[in-house]
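Re: that chain you flagged

S.,

Sorry for the slow reply, it's been a week of failed gels. I finally had a moment to sit down with the sequence you sent. For the record, here it is as I used it:
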Amino acid sequence: MRDARRSDVALLIAVIALGTAIRFATLGVQSFDFDESFTVGIVVNGSFGHMLRTIPRTESSPPLYYILAWLWSKVFGLGPVGIRSLSALFGSLVILVAFFIGKRFGSFRAGLYAALFVAVDPLLVWYSQEARTYALLALLGALSFWTFVRALERPDRSRLVLWALASAAAICSHYFAGFLVIAEAVWLVVATRRPGAVIASGAVLLVGLALLPLALRQADHRTEWIANLPFSSRIKEVTKKLVTGEIDPTHNWQLVIVAVIVGAAMVYAWPRLRDRERRGAVLAVGTGLAAIVLPFLLDLAGLHYLISKNVMAAVPVLLSGAGIILGARGAPRAGVLGASVGAALMLAITVDGAVNPALQRPDYRDAAKALGAPIAGEAVVTPNLGDQPMALYRPGAQSMPQSGWRVREVVVIRPVVRADEPYNRKPTPPAPPGFTYAGRVDTKHYTLICFTSPVPRLTVRPPLLVLAGEDVPPDVQVWPGAAASTRALTPCQTHVA
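Prediction finished late last night. Pasting the C-alpha cells below so you have them in one place:
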C-alpha cells in the first residue's frame, strides 16, 4: 500500500471496521436456528472423537469447520457469541482478501470497492453470524482465488503450493468449493502449461478423493428438501440472495432501480478498463460464475444441491470482480456512483436484518424462555425445523411416542412470519379432544397458543400435529425426566399476567 494516500488507507480501515462491527456487534441477538442447534447441541458438544463420529450421521459437509469450532469452543464456549465469533472472524478476514484481489488487478480504489461490497453483503453477513461452515467456505474460496491469480502470474513452486494448500482447505470446508477449484485448476493448467500446475492440481484432486467415502456416507435423505424445491425458485434464490441476503425484504422495483444504476455504471466502465483490469475482471467473474454454472448443470442432470449457501465460495470472488470493474481508472465518477448505490442497498438490508425479527432466524430461545422449565404432562408442538432448537434450549426433550403420552398441557409454538413469505397470522385452531383453549400470546418474535386438560390425558400425536397448521411435518415434544408441575398458570396466562 505504499502508493496509497493516507485518506485511502483511512477509508480501507473504515470499511474493514464497518464490516467487522456489523458481524460482531449483534452476534448474540438471534436464537440458534435448526442447523446451528446441531453444531452446538450435538456435533461439537462433546469429545473430539464424538465430534468425528457424529459428522457422518448429522452433517452434509467435510470436517474442517467442526474441528476448528471444537477447538474454538474450548476457549470461547458454546454460547451464541462464543461459537459464532469464529464465523464472524472468518467473515471479517474475507473483507481483507477481497481488497487484495481487487487491488492486484486494478487500483487501490478497485480493492476498496471489492472490500466494501464484501463488508456489507447481507448473505455474507448472515453466514458470518452462523455457527456453520459457510463463512469459512467464503474465506477459503477467496484465498483459493487469490493464490490462483498469483500462481497464474508466476507459476513457481511456492505459489503453486500455496494455491494447492488453500484449495485443499477450501474443499475440506465444503464439497462445493470443488467447483471453484476445478475452474481454477483447468485455467491454471491450460494457461501455464507447466508440469508444476498439473502436479498441484493432482494433489488437490487427491484430497477430494480422500473425502469421497465421507461424502458418500452423507449422501442420503438429509438433503432431499433441496430437490423438493422448484428448480426455478432455486435459480431465482441463487441470483437474488447473493445481493439481498438469506431473507429477501426487497421489492422487484427496488432491485430494478439499483440494477439499472449499477449495471449502467459497469457497462460504462468496461470499455475504459485497462488491460490488466479487464483481465482481472474476466478471471474473477469467469471463475465465480463457473462455481455456480457447474452445480447448475449437475442439477439439470439430477443431482439437486444448488442453493445459495452451497455456492458461497463464489460470492466474494464475484463481488471482487464487480469492484475491479467499477474501480476502472478510466471511469472514476461512474465507479463511485455504481459502488455507492450497490453498497447502500446491501448495507440497508444488512442493518434492517439486525433490528427486524422478520429478517432474522426463528426465535426459539425467547419462546423457550416464555415456556419456562419443562414439566411432566406437557407437550409442545414445534414447527418444521423447530424440534432441535427447542431441544437445545429445553434439554431432555424427545418426540412424543407413537403410542401416546399422558398430557395435561399443550403449547403450540409459531415463529414470526418471514419477510419474504406472505404474511398470514393463522387463527387459533380448535382445541384437541379433551382439552380447552387456555390463551394465546402474539409477540413480534413468536406466537404461543395453550390448551389444558383438568387431568392428565393419554394423547396421541395426530390431533396435536394438526395444531401446527403446516403442510410440512411439525413435531410434538415431551420431557420424560421433568418434574411434576407446580404452576397454576399456563405459559400463555403467565405471559399475559
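What I noticed first: The mean pLDDT is 92.

Talk soon,
D.
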